[in-house]
Amino acid sequence: MIESALVEFGIQANLCRIEPLVSGLINRTWKVKCGKDTFILQQINDNIFKHPFKIADNIKRINIYLNRHNPDYLFVSPLESLAKMELVHLENEGYFRLFPFIVGSHTINIVSSPEQAFEAAFQFGRFTHLLSGFDAGSLNTTIPDFHNLSLRYAQYENSLRTGNPNRIKTAKHLIDELKAYTSILTVFEKIQIDPHIKKRVMHHDTKISNVLFNDSEKGIAVIDLDTVMPGYFISDVGDMMRTYLSPANEEEKDFSKIEIRDDYFRAIVRGYLSNMGDELTEAEQELILYSGQFIIYMQAIRFLADYFNNDTYYGVTYEDNNLVRAGNQITLLKELNKKSILLNAIIQDELKAQGL
Ligand code: GN1
Ligand code: MG
Asked: Which of 9, 110, 117, 280 is deepest in the core (most CB within 10 A)?
């Protein structure tokens, strides 16, 4: 499979060293080293991304725009195949694309310093900022309603009606706990009709492994652009909070290890505002802490719904994996809420520091 994909790009697999990269729950990725050239090969999961060519089209148009307006910005776009395509479809094998490996770059899987959180937030803010003149509405929506909390909630409710009854019984305590957070949904419904909350070009998957760092630990680019589409800033800031604030990640079974690190929170806010501070409206500034609540809550209900649906969406490695993930995210949400006064003070502090 990998061999036939590489041939499309004029690469002979038997001359290369190929190693799988663990990155995310959805797509499959390999590092391909052929002599002095190194590439990243990726197979798009077309169960989830139903129209992979829409992704390729978005990336191409953004690339053209950035090349024209910010030629120095490092935008990692796919290489062309021999047939001059950025995405190759192989019958029965799927969709593949090839990226150049950026020499001197590396990714990390765990945020272990506030500086790393700052760098990542700076990069994601920069990405949206540099695209502020690009018509976000012209992008293809690669996953419809991806961060539409109202729809996610409806899907969760549906899974409660039609899902695996034993699993629903097992998760009763989580279902009850989630009822306390429906105000997060109410705020989202208001956001959708508020003209002061803008749709911009958002990344929608801001975990740390989607940032390239250089040898001096400076952020240099954002990668994994499949979910780049119009959205609200809360999506990107929220997912950074969800994935950077706690030293324990979504797979952690020992929930006592889940905590909110204030200095990492400050770093995210500072890094993001460095590029986006001038663009956020006052109504949006007020939603900074909400971002984290929004994304963590949405992830909890997505994991739980998938558990009820017998794990059809997320990759799992053991029976109750999605149940554990949901419980983990609810704990994270509780921890975040416990610190809301302090975190709001940090936000005010950082807004002031940027003269906002
Ligand atoms: C999925 O595959 P990965 O890890 O990049 C999911 C995200 C979730 C994440 C949770 C397309 O992302 O929304 O936050 O899992 N992506 C999609 O680990 O559903
Ligand atoms: Mg992803």
From this structure: 117
